[in-house]
Amino acid sequence: MSRSLASRTPHPMQEAVVEASPNNGAGSSANVRLFRALADVFQKAQSTYAGHRRHISVLKRIQAKAIEQGYEEVFNYWFNKLVVLVLPLRRAEPAGDRIVRLVGGFIASSEQDVEQARATDETTFAEQEEQLSRFIDQFVRHILRGIESKDKNVRYRVTQLLAVIMDNLGEISEDLYNLITWSLEKRVHDKEPSVRVQTIFCLTKFQDEDGDSIDPDSATASLVTAIQHDPSPEVRRASMLNLVLNNQTQEYIFERARDVNPVNRRLVFSRILRSMGKKVFADVEIESLNRLLSWGLDDRDESVRNACVRLVAFDWLNIMDGDVIQLLSYLQVSKTSSSDKVVNAILESRPDIISKIQLPSDIWDDVSTESAFLIKSLYLFCIKHKLDDVIDKNFPEATSLSQTLQKYLDKRYSQEGLSAKNEQNLEFVILQLFSAASEYDYSDEMGRRAMLNLIRNSLARFKLPEPLIQAGLKVLRALSINERDFITMSVEIITDLRDEDIERQEQADEEREIDLGDDEERPDAIESFNSAVENLAKGVEEPQQENIEKFAIEKEAGSETLMICLVLSRYMLELINTPLPENILIYSLIDTLIRPAVRNTQPEIRQLGLRNLGLCCILDVELAAESMFILGMCVSKGDPSLKNIALQVIVDVFSVHGSKVVDGEGKVDSISLHKIFYKVLKNHELPECQAIAAEGLCKLFLGDVFVDDDLFETLVLSCFSPANAKNEALVQAFAFCLPVYCFSHRNHQKRMARVASDVFLRLTMLWDDLQKGECDDMAPEAMLRPGAILQQLIHWTDPSKLVNQSKESDDTENYQLDFLLNVLKIYNRFERKDVKKMLLTNINKITLTSEDDLHKLEEIREILQDIDDNDNIDVSSHKSIKKIVEHVEQIITEAKSEKVEEDSSNQSEDEYSAILSTTGENNAHTPPPPRQESFGDPHEFDSPMDMSRDMIDNTPSRKPSREVGSQDMAKSRNSTVPRTRKRSRENTSSQRRERIHGSDNVNRTVSFILPSDDNSVTDEGNSSTYDS
């Protein structure tokens, strides 16, 4: 309520007095005394929390005495009336909070008295319980009358009181429970976030903590809905912190680790997971825990990352008594991807742990998965931070490490009968040791040779899985003298693998031939012999074509060996940077391995071949240009997996080489590639391909590699298309990339402004079709409303959002003005009246200043006036047009006046220059007067303006008053500065600060005390009513 309550004083209610006692005089006196006693308590309690315990005791004595004398209803009546006075107080005023706290403390103390009476006297317990129940019932029913008030402060105070009461009560009646829950159902969706927060606090007490499922009509279901869909972060936070944690609600709470609000994300780690203690490893699945740790340690907000680090490095590690191995065993390092970040976080934030970690010599004889992971993480951390003393104390020489690796390799690939779990654990141990070996010090030549022989033999002999091949090649790269040496050894390994497989095939063929017997006994050999004899008899010497083909076919490696070779070549190519012309061996690898793999019919081999080809294209622009046709065909004709790889390769090639790979002699046309991206973006059946294409296009547009407006328009249309609403990867890519693109450069914002009007028109037409039900495959609610789309486009074209913009560039051109002009030009193409109304009521959000183009501003004014005169628009649209037209006219007037002032200033300077030139000519024909020595000549001028001021001052006919006025006018004109957006924003901010500092910051209080001369209590002016 806007009116002040500081002067309001409660007045008596004569009717209540009459009903209170048969003796009107005695009843009135008791009524006044009771009111004054309660009012005195409330008056004092609103000032501070310090005396609340004493005030609660006084209230209890007043209530007990009133009940004893038969004034229970009077006590309840005045208690309600005094509390009602607090309801209109704003949320920021502490007096209201203190009274609410007083009421809560009073009810809590009464509840404690009832519980104490339960253990001592059953009769007293029954009486006190009945009295408290009556008081709570009438008080709650009374304040519930204001729960739907039009005043947001009343609704807030009512829900706040309910939350405090429910927090301090043990039991309530079934009828009162139904009434409260029914009343709170609407408040969960109140338009004020503060009311919704207090409603959540109240509903918290009605949850079923042991429920096996979530009842749709229960309080838990309301909290789940709020935690997922409420737009206010405070409401989501209240729901998250108060929702009961069990198997049914766990996933909803952990979802807040991806909340848009950093405070909510932080509380998942600092409150939710921390409060679970050691139970978190038993109650939370390891996949969910791994996901939460990855999100927390990689969060973009530093406070969230710090909260997750404190959880792991301090809370969890202290629970384990500082045992890192035990913590890693709970995290199951062999199955999770976040363990690296966890150990690094521990080592970074707990330097004391590094000094306590000791690796005894016998640990290398029996390395577990946890200890292997700790060995790798500790070694890499020490290398990064140059902790040589820790390395020398805990890690062996390269020779001993190679022997340890050899032992575990033999155990994995030489022993038979190992279980799948043991194989997995051994491979994990080898991977960790390989990762440490890739950063090892190989200054000892013996250790280097031992490790080199081990790596070459393991890559050539054993059929290692992909992670081990990748890690092994990294070790080989560290052992190589240079990149050429690394390529030579890698190609030798690949060639040896292929040759050995071909030899095995030939040997198998020879053994098969021996098993079949001599050629005479074979039917095909006899037939071949007979045909050769006939050809000789006829004089035909040409061999048969089928024999030529059989002779031309060469042996190829088997599929399994070919896969291993392609994996080796892939990870080798990822580790080199030398251009292909300097690596002849890679050219031979392309001809003999990679290109045949691309033409292979097996999908896995073809995908690996295409990925290898893409890595080669990054190293050579000519090969990239030659391969663009193959890559385009893979996107057009390939299966989804092949499309994904081809799209990634195309984006990487353009990112490295730019547009040099297209539009040339013998090269692919860029328009053809654009069409490929069109088709991919419109193909809703392949969401992963859409996400890859969209993210890649955003990168290429951001780097100005692609500059086509039509392709960019297709990209923006895909962002708002309802068909892509469920493609979360695509939505996330657009949510990050498009704002970054628009705010990174003026040219980018200019491109967005060029396409924005057509984008808006197309999307509006699509939305209209959805509302009419003409699109059967898409739901109407899947698409944003045109108002939200228009606001997003206005935001993206806002020039004030540009980063690293200079003052000069900010004042030159406003592309948001172009967007507004383009939209108004196509205004008549919008068919729906609600869309037109939305457009006209939202254009006021566009920034217009006097630095904008006057011709465009005048054109906008003319179009708006034409719409106002000729189109049938409603009152709100008319007011919006009138407002913006007045604003545009004001801007045009200001701009013209500034231009006139600038022209007049330039003209006066030209006149002064002409006077100077004339004076100079006259002085040239007149002999100069004899020079007089002085400290300063008063007639020497530094500029034409100085001379003009001197002429004005020395004019005899000018009056003093006119002189002062002229000087003031000249001074004000010379001090005129053109307005800029920055100056306007500064003026607005200063005015806002003045308004803030000039406002009344005194907290409001409520007067509960009657004037001293009042001897009676009347009914007038005290009945506080609710605005319903």
From TrEMBL:
The keyword Cell division applies. Residues 1013-1028 have a biased composition (Polar residues). Residues 934-952 have a biased composition (Basic and acidic residues). Residues 1-24, 919-1028 are annotated as: Disordered. InterPro entries: ARM-like, ARM-type_fold, CND3, Cnd3_C. One of its GO terms (cellular component) is condensed chromosome. Keywords: Cell cycle, Cell division, Chromosome, DNA condensation, Mitosis. One of its GO terms (biological process) is cell division. Residues 565-848 form the Nuclear condensin complex subunit 3 C-terminal domain. Signal peptide: none annotated. The keyword Cell cycle applies. It is found in: Chromosome. Transmembrane segments: none annotated. Belongs to the CND3 (condensin subunit 3) family. PANTHER family: CONDENSIN COMPLEX SUBUNIT 3, CONDENSIN COMPLEX SUBUNIT 3-RELATED. This is LAMI_0C04390g1_1. It comes from Lachancea mirantina.
